[in-house]
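Work Package 3 (structural annotation) set out to generate three-dimensional models for the target panel prioritized at the project kickoff. During this period the team completed the workflow that converts sequence records into discrete structure tokens, so that structures can be stored uniformly alongside our sequence database. As a representative example, we reproduce one entry of 256 residues exactly as it appears in the project archive.
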Amino acid sequence: MLHHVEQGYGESVLLLPGFACTHSMYTAQLVALSDQYRVIAVDLRGTGDSPPLQCAPERVFPTQAHDLTELLDGLHIPRAHLVGSSTGGNVALRFALAHPDRVRSLTLVDTTAQDDAETPFEKVSRFADRAALGFLRAPRQLLGGIALQRYSRWPEVGLLMAQYYREADPETLILLRRAALDERVAPELAGLEIPALVLAGDFSPPLVSAGHQLANLLPRARFASIGDALDPSVLCRPEVFNRVLRDFLEHVGRPG
């Protein structure tokens, strides 16, 4: 079973961490939401204290989604609200497509769902992303320093992200990144009749654009940006994220 921590009682809220992150990115949510919900933060396969990730890139998200099935079964949870940040959102989408009856709602933060109809700019960006994959093998201290610089506006986030990069396995990071670049579930999302909230930090215009596109693909979704935030927005603006998420969960729970 996946490593996880939980707190509180009520409807289950499953928190899926983003690229390179572990369950600890959701420390604030475990505290903020546990007065009303059973909040469960997990280490996805390949991260933290969960089993290693050993599969082809196209099997990464299906494998991690299958792990969620075993986790929910082991915890005797028939249905849950799923919250995924970045690649955690990709896992949430895969799980929802495979088991829509087990998903109460979806919250997708800084998540993309590419399709084959890419613009020339998107194609160039994707090519550049693939060319940069090898950089994830750079010395851990160098990646940590880059994280500190990238999040200089949010120094506590920079420290945490630097720690994640120092502790992560480089080959697993490359595998996760390849999986995200190859992911193509957009054509399947039109049939996903699940309440959904799509969020993105406004410091990343490409993710805001991708968030709008993702919300348009999901029949019951709405999009909202989080001000003064960069992926992972959950960490940059936890108070705002907690408020928006709680409002959404309460809206989903209202009769009618």
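The mean pLDDT is 93.
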